[in-house]
């Protein structure tokens, strides 16, 4: 699979051969859904907590005698049936994450890349190098027509480009090891550098 390579100023810089095993698959929504669900569940904080009967701050004194009142038998005001009493089986801090095999995660990333390539939302640039000036990079991005774009560079992100991109809305940059299904799918355009393409092929071979 061949794709044209462009420069940040819009000029042509040759072409690159993309691996069909990474960029030429038939995207499967079920695989992408499972990987995104795994990512989002692992990211969920799970710190929500309520007070149980033993943690509320009412007195533990018996509120009325056991027999003869015609009402239910109660020991204290901490019972879940009372207002401001303890909560029965409420949420406690826990992990919402679940396991997903490493091979399946790798497959999900391949299908995400293939989905972008099939939709015509994949762009390959020569390199992501900038002088660190936000205004200059914002102008280049606007000329290229990128509104919500994710740039994936090689093993290391260019420092000047990262600094310039930091304040541009809708533009994110990640190193190859940070590439993930959720971030790829939620952006309109996926931009890979030539170094990023090589590093992804080495990572997913």
From TrEMBL:
UniProt keyword terms in alphabetical order: Ribonucleoprotein, Ribosomal protein, RNA-binding, rRNA-binding
GO cellular component: ribonucleoprotein complex; ribosome
UniProt keyword annotation of Acetylation present: no
Organism: Cribrihabitans marinus
Family matches, as InterPro entries: Ribosomal_uL4 (IPR002136), Ribosomal_uL4-like (IPR013005), Ribosomal_uL4_dom_sf (IPR023574)
PANTHER family according to UniProt: 50S RIBOSOMAL PROTEIN L4 (PTHR10746), LARGE RIBOSOMAL SUBUNIT PROTEIN UL4M (PTHR10746:SF6)
Keyword check for rRNA-binding: yes
A biological-process GO annotation: translation
A matching Pfam family: Ribosomal_L4
GO molecular-function term, one example from the UniProt record: rRNA binding
The family this protein is said to belong to: Belongs to the universal ribosomal protein uL4 family.
Entry-linked HAMAP family: Ribosomal_uL4_B (MF_01328_B)
Name of protein: Large ribosomal subunit protein uL4
């Amino acid at each position: 699979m061949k794709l044209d390579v462009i420069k940040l100023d819009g000029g042509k810089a040759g072409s690159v051969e993309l691996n069909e095993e990474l960029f030429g698959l038939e995207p499967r929504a079920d695989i992408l859904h499972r990987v995104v669900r795994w990512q989002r569940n692992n990211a969920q904080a799970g710190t929500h907590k309520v007070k149980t009967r033993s943690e509320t701050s009412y007195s533990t004194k018996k509120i009325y005698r056991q027999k003869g009142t015609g009402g239910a038998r109660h020991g204290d005001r901490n019972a879940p049936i009372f207002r401001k009493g303890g909560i029965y089986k409420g949420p406690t801090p826990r992990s919402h994450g679940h396991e997903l095999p490493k091979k399946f995660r790798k497959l999900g990333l391949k299908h995400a890349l293939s989905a972008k390539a099939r939709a015509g939302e994949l762009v390959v640039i020569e390199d992501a190098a900038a002088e660190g000036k936000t205004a200059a990079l914002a102008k280049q991005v606007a000329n290229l027509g990128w509104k919500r774009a994710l740039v994936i560079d090689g093993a290391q992100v260019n420092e000047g480009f990262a600094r310039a991109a930091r304040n541009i809305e809708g533009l994110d940059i990640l190193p190859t090891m940070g590439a993930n299904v959720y971030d790829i799918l939620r952006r309109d355009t996926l931009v890979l550098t030539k170094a990023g393409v090589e590093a992804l092929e080495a990572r997913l071979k």
